[in-house]
Amino acid sequence: MRSIKLLFLLTMLSGFLKQVNAQTNPDSSAYEVQRSHVNELLNARQQKFGAYDTSLTKKTGLFGLFKSKGDMQKSIDILKDIVITDNNIFLETQKLLKIKDFEKDKFQQLATDYDKQVSAYIGTISKLQKENEKLRSQVDKTSGNGGLGNILLYIALLVIGVLGYLLYTAKAKQAVQSKPLQNDKV
After folding, report:
1. Which of 115, 28, 48, 50 minimizes the C-alpha distance to 88?
2. Are 34 and 95 in contact (CB under 8 A)?
3. b/e for 52-80, b at 16 or more Cβ within 10 A?
4. What is the pTM of this model?
5. pLDDT in tens, 69-91
6. In the chain, is it the N or the C terminus that has fewer CB atoms within a 10 Å radius of its CB?
């Protein structure tokens, strides 16, 4: 009986694990998409900073010795673009952190739910084991009393049989003794 319980428990556990592995996690894919978006922004910022560094060294002014107003405006525009990209990086990183926090909370909730389910299964199994032990003890008591009850039944049947035989023989003797009397009257 214990092997059946163990087999049942293992079957339930393997089904539970298959269900957990079979589930695709859309939050993880959203996290990965967001992470790749942040990485793209970081790469774009790095390229823009390289362009800014190049624009700082570029001098198209008088004989290439001085920076022109256009060179300085290009550097300023690139710097503005870098600041905008930095702001986007901060916003997207905040979204990424929110997704990560949401996933963490979701997994903690799932773990709590699964713990509750496992605790409920353990409670049910314990309750069934106690009930099984109780029924086994009742069966043992009944089977022990059943043997005694059977013996008493057999003794009662034997006593009834002996009494029946004794009554039959007594009646037969009475009938034999009363027959000669009836023969004399005839």
Report:
1. 48
2. yes
3. beebeebeeeeeeeebeeebeebbeebee
4. 0.46
5. 888 888 899 999 999 989 999 99
6. C
